[in-house]
Amino acid sequence: MCVTCGCDDGAKITVTNLQTGHEEHMEKAMPNHQHPHDHDHQQGDSHHHDHSHEHDHDGHSHDHHTHGHAHEDHDHHVHGHDHASEPAALSAVAGLHAVTIDLERAILDKNDRLADRNRAWFEGREILALNLVSSPGAGKTTLLEKTIRDLKDEIAISVIEGDQQTLNDAERIKAAGAPAIQVNTGTGCHLEADMIRRGLDSLKPAFGSLLMIENVGNLVCPALFDLGERAKVVVLSVTEGEDKPLKYPHMFKAAELMIISKIDLEPHVDFDLDRCEAMAREVNPEIQSIRLSARTGEGLEAWYAWLRATQRRVSLPAA
Ligand code: MG
Question: Ligand 1: distance of its center to the CA of 140 in Å?
């Protein structure tokens, strides 16, 4: 995941309010781990740190041990079993693996706590927050534009857009008639709960409204990061492979609804809708499915009916 691939390291996040033009910057600080810099311990060097973190670091980049901050969330520094008798390379790999797992856990735990706060905030205001996820180009923004144009007189809708770069999608949303925040994640491949918090502070969605969060286009990492949403909605277009649910099962397991988009193109592509839905149910028997085309309007009523029904569940006390 992200911690392993490093896409998130030191990411510069920008949160832009399209209504006010206000721009805010966030530093993506990793818990218990500052922005990595190179550090040049060579394999087999006999350097020892102050605490019992004895495995060697053969050139990988991390510097948590050189900072005096507390390691309250994890304990990689106390698992100091002696690697001295092991080959240095093996010892280094084991150490890196342990640190990586601890970092992943710390990052996800911290995100989950913030997501719970967002969720409570939404519940208190009877806001239906949905997290839209897909590959790039599946049609999330187009679906949102259409939804806003069709429903804005019925329900207040606001949008938090996530993309690595550009304000393009938030500008499209604004043009469709809804307030929009653009979160640019820089090198990051997903939105996180703290970015949503910042977006909400600026967006101030109304009581009882609908908040659409369009995640960064990616079927992998966004599955792991809870934003505090009521549900994830995964959008899969017929121009993609129908076996995406099997290839990216975590995302389809995490989603409550699958939207198969661009069905107007179905006659031109080899995409078996029934097979796709069967595969999605294979990884998530509870998943619901709606087939639609934002371009022709086919299937949109089913999507709107789902939104209304889900909205009612948010505004009614749990039965
Ligand atoms: Mg988009």
Answer: 5
> 260: which strand partners?
236, 291
169 alpha carbon to ligand 1 midpoint, in Å? 6
Band of residue 103 on the pLDDT scale cut at 50, 70, 90: confident
- List, for residues 28-46, the tens digit of each pLDDT value: 755 544 433 333 444 444 4
Separation of CA 279 and ligand 1 centre (Å): 25
Express each pLDDT in 140-183 by its tens digit: 999 999 999 999 999 999 999 999 999 999 999 999 999 999 99
CA of 139 to the centre of ligand 1 (A): 7
Question: If you measure from the C-alpha of residue 249 to the centroid of ligand 1, how many angstroms do you get, rounded to a whole number?
Answer: 22
For residues 134 and 232, give the distance between their C-alpha atoms in angstroms, rounded to a whole number.
Answer: 10
The answer as to whether 249 is a domain residue is: yes
What is the residue range of 23's domain? 12-28+107-315
Q: What is the CATH number of the domain that holds 215?
A: 3.40.50.300
Nearest to 148 by CA among 229, 212, 213: 212
Query: Is 77 contained in some domain?
Result: no
| Centre of ligand 1 from the C-alpha of residue 209, in Å | 21
- Total domains present in the chain: 1
**In a domain? residue 51:** no
Taking the C-alpha atoms of residue 22 and residue 186, their distance in angstroms, rounded to an integer, is 18
**Ligand 1 centroid – CA 180 distance (Å):** 13
Q: Which pair of tokens denotes residue 13? A: 């996040």
Q: Count how many Cα atoms sit within 13 Å of the Cα of residue 131 in the half-sphere of its side chain.
A: 28
Tell me the pLDDT band of 71, cut-offs 50, 70 and 90. Answer: very low
In a domain, 67, yes or no: no
**138 Cα: distance to centroid of ligand 1 (angstroms):** 8
